[in-house]
Amino acid sequence: MGVFNIQELEQEHQEVLYRMPALVSVLIGVADGDMDSNEEQRAKRAVHFRQSIGDPLLFDYFSQVEKQLDRDLAVFEDKCRNLAEDQRVIYISDEIARINEILPLLDEKLATAIVKNLRSLAVGIATTSGGIIGVGAGYTEADLAQLSMINF
Known about the structure:
Elements: H1 11-30, H2 37-49, H3 59-81, H4 85-97, H5 108-128, H6 139-144
Helix pairs in contact: 1-2, 1-3, 1-4, 1-5, 2-3, 2-5, 3-4
């Protein structure tokens, strides 16, 4: 049986998990250029609401995520500005893939809930500015929203 409380993990693993919603948001945002304000606001609203609506198993997780979301979004958006468009997706995808070493350490229900919520967040952000089911959906954005770099 894995860890049920994220605070029981090593500090580095906690930080990786708490950065995931920002990384997912930036990944979808940079898929079609730069992350726009609508995508950023959608990410912030989703994280805020998931503290009290949705899976109760993740209320504390999203509470912690919200405390650092603005900072994490700014850090990863800033890093992406200095990269070519194709390199942005590779960089963020590699950062997201770091979750693969942590998920097996978690209780299966918790790990499943986190991955499900990250994929839901990705789809929600992709639909914000016309991606996936909106006008102008691009294959890249739709493909990225599946978060195939997460092997769980």
